[in-house]
Each structure stands twice: as C-alpha cells, then as structure tokens.
Design brief:
- The chain is an alpha+beta fold and about 425 residues long.
- It has 14 helices and eleven strands.
- The protein has helices at about 20-30, 85-95, 110-120, 130-140, 150-160, 170-205, 215-225, 230-265, 280-290, 300-305, 330-345, 350-360, 365-390, 425, and strands spanning about 1-5, 40, 45, 50-60, 60-70, 75-80, 100-105, 125-130, 165, 310, 320.
- The strands form three sheets. A seven-stranded mixed beta sheet has the order 1-6-5-4-7-8-9. A two-stranded antiparallel sheet has the order 2-3.
- β7 (about 100-105), α3 and β8 form a beta-alpha-beta unit.
- The two termini are about 40 Å apart.
- About 35% of the residues are buried.
- Residues about 10-50, about 395-410, about 410-415 and about 420-435 have low confidence and may be disordered.
C-alpha cells in the first residue's frame, strides 16, 4: 500500500511558524542552502540538478517519507508499506528525483532493515539520530507532539540542514559480528534467568538453598541428594533437573559462541582483547557499536557518548557534577564489567580506585572515575588500531612508550574529568579518509 500526498509550497500548514524555534534550529543545525525549484501546474515538483533529501520515519511494517529540496521546500511525501510491493512503490516514487539521499532515523535500530535494503539497491543513506530529529521537531513545530508525518518532516529538516551525518555503509564483517554478539548476549540472559529459577526451586527442596555461584555440575550433585516423597516435591525436582540440562546446553553454546567471537574479533586486527577485563564479547560489542572511532573528535566526546563523562550540574558558586544516565548503555555495561574485573585483581585499576577512595570519594564515585579512565584507554586503543590499519604494514604511527594504551591500566596521574584547556594535540589524531 502507498499513500502519497501532493507537494505543498512552503511549510506545511498547521506545523506552526515558531520563529524563535526556527532561529534556534538554524544555529544548532547550520548549512542551509538555497536552490530554485520548478513547480508543475498540478502541484508536483521537479528538481533540476538539485539534491533532495528524503526523510524517512521507519516502522516495522510501514515507512513515512517526506521529500525536501535544499531550500527546505517540501516537494513530496507519502506513506508506504515495507513489503515487496510497498517498497517497490516507494522506490518508483522516489525515482523522479535522480539526485537524492535518504535520511533514515535510527539506522542502528528500527530503521536498520529498510536502510540496508536501500543500500543493497545502490542508494545513498545517512543515519539521523532519534534525539536530533526530536529536537528538530520541537524547534520546527514549537511543541512536542508527534505523528509519522511530523517525524518525517523533522528528519528531512535534519538531513537538509545538518552536515556530518553518518553515512550508512554495508560492512558485512560488522554485520556478522553484531549477529554473533547479540546471540551471545541472549545466551547470557538465558543463563541468568535459568539460574534464578533453579535457585528458587533448590531453596524449596533443600533447607537454606544453594550457594550463590552455582554451576550446573554442582546443582546436579545437590539435586542427587534430594528424594522428595510428595507430588509437589517430585515436580520441583523434575523441573530442576530440566533446568540443569538446559544450563549444560547453554554452557556448551556459550563456549562455542565465545570461540567463534574470539576468532572473528582477532581477524579484525584489534588489540582490544589485550586490555585487562575485555573479552571477546566486550571487544565485539565495542567494534559493532562504535563503528568508525574517528567520528569522535577526542576522548571526552567518546566518554560523553558512552555515558561515563559526568554531567556538570554547577550553579553559582556551587561546583558539582552528577552521574550521566544517558549514552550508549551497552558500551557502558562493557566498561562496568571491565572495571569490575580490574577491581577483583591487583591491577593499576584497583590501585587507582583505592587512591580515589583515600582522597575522600565514595565507592560509587571512585567506580565512576575508574570507568571514565577506562573509557579513555579504550578510545586510545581504538584510535591506535585505526592508525595502524590506515598505515598498513610497518607498525603503528604516533604511538609512544608512555602512551596510556601501552598498558591495560589507567595512568597514575589521571582524573575522572577531562584536562582543562585545548587538548587536540593529545586527543585528536589526523587520519586518512576511510575507503
């Protein structure tokens, strides 16, 4: 199915002028360009030698698009089904603008399926972050109400005004890594759920239950000592035995998944697994979620993206920072696991944590500071890997013996906040463009 509405000159009626909001948006999202658009008598628009942006609000079974010229004139739009017929109708409708680029919201989430189909057909696609389109919607309309049409309009606005949006690329290696690391995560979630159920059953079967860290072999040995007489007890024992069998299967699959991930991550040439506390799953998750590390100008931007940078909450003479709840939570979890592993061993991370506590910080504050330092180390590691890949055979460039990446632990003099003043010479590495 396809619902196509004719183009209307100027802005959509009912969206609201919101002159102050538009001014704010122009400051936040520069690069407006002016072009001439020829309008046909029936309202259809033909754009000659001008690029148009097709903003798309994707869903599982439908996609709403709006076609916008460079002068922000809406030249077309419609709602299409994402099945074969609907997708073909959308492509046919878009073919009237040969010089086009698709701005799709959430290409790492709900928009991934349609973005990859467009890529496979040779289309140019850029990723519009949902937060950015949400801000554009508020600035453009003066309020936060949303429909599929207003979402497509705000996405098209971002695609037209914003320079530097991430182009979507079809990287089969990263796609394979994502599938395997997501599968490994689901196996871990299944393991946690089954162990919790098993603990509850053993608590009813054995006085005091079982110890916290319980393997399938230990649970099987405990269950062998239980001989219930009543029907309820027998049912509990039978279900517990089934859970143990499922756990053994999960263990085998997890081990196989870890081996496959380890080989695949090693084939990328990354040194992330050399860092203490980063395993195959963590390294794969970093590679998949980060993509091109050079899109972050420095380590502070990377820390803000993964949620380890504290948020300034100062007011007047009171200077304080608070915990960030934003950022990529999957990468934040990788950093948390890395910090926990370092705290369990006599590492520099453990010594750094102890120094923070000795300076008066609480355990939670010291943990946040440690995660911030580990974020810097991961950033430097990925930057050096990128430089080495760009340099080709012959080793890394711009890596010194006292660089923080030469070891897997935080440097002795590091802090949980970025250094004051410009740090481009330390943080930013000029790299050749990716092929």
């Amino acid at each position: 199915m396809a619902l196509i509405w004719p183009a209307r000159p100027g802005r959509h009626p009912g969206r609201g002028e919101a002159q102050e909001g538009f001014a704010l948006l122009e400051v936040a999202l520069p690069s407006r360009l002016d072009n001439q658009v020829d309008r046909a008598s029936e309202g259809a628009v033909s754009v000659t030698s001008d690029r148009v942006v097709i903003g798309m609000d994707p869903h599982k079974r439908s996609a709403t698009i709006e076609v916008m010229a460079r002068d922000e004139t809406v030249v077309g739009g419609g709602r299409f089904d994402t099945g074969r017929d609907g997708y073909a109708a959308m492509k046919k409708y878009a073919s009237r603008w040969p010089n086009r680029v698709w701005a799709v919201e959430g290409c790492q989430g709900i928009g991934r399926h349609i973005a990859h189909r467009l890529l496979a057909d040779g289309e140019q696609v850029v990723d519009v972050p949902p937060k950015l389109s949400a801000r554009a919607r508020v600035f453009a309309t003066g309020q936060g109400r949303k429909t599929d049409a207003t979402d497509a309009h705000s996405i098209a606005l971002v695609g037209t005004r914003m320079a530097g949006l991430r182009p979507v690329v079809n990287d089969e290696h990263l796609a394979l890594l994502r599938i395997l690391v997501d599968r490994r995560r689901s196996l871990g979630e299944d393991h946690t759920r089954m162990v919790s159920q098993l603990h509850q059953l053993l608590l009813d079967l054995i006085p005091g239950g079982a110890k916290r860290s319980l393997s399938a072999a230990q649970a099987k040995a405990l269950l062998a000592t239980v001989r219930p007489r009543d029907a309820v007890g027998k049912a509990r024992r039978r279900v517990a035995a089934e859970l143990i069998a499922d756990l053994e299967r999960i263990y085998r699959r997890s081990k196989e998944a870890d081996k496959e991930l380890k080989d695949l991550v090693a084939s990328t040439g990354t040194t992330l697994m050399d860092l203490h506390g980063i395993g195959p799953s963590g390294a794969a998750r970093l590679l998949v979620e980060v993509g091109d590390i050079t899109r972050f100008p420095n380590r502070a931007h990377f820390a803000s993206w993964n949620g380890t940078a504290p948020i300034d909450a100062s007011s007047g003479d009171q200077v304080r920072h608070r915990l960030s709840r934003a950022g990529n939570r999957q990468i934040n979890r990788v950093l948390h696991i890395m910090a926990t592993v370092q705290l369990r061993n006599p590492t520099e991370g453990r010594a750094y944590f102890d120094r923070k506590k000795a300076s008066g910080k609480t355990s939670m504050e010291a943990m946040r500071a440690l995660k911030r330092r580990l974020s810097d180390i991961i950033y430097r590691c990925m930057i050096n890997d990128r430089v080495a890949t760009a340099a080709g055979p012959g080793g890394q460039r711009e890596t010194t013996t006292d660089s923080s990446v030469t070891g897997s632990h935080p440097p002795a003099g590091s802090s949980e906040k970025s250094l004051p003043g410009p740090a481009a010479t330390q943080d930013r590495t000029l790299l050749p463009a990716m092929s």
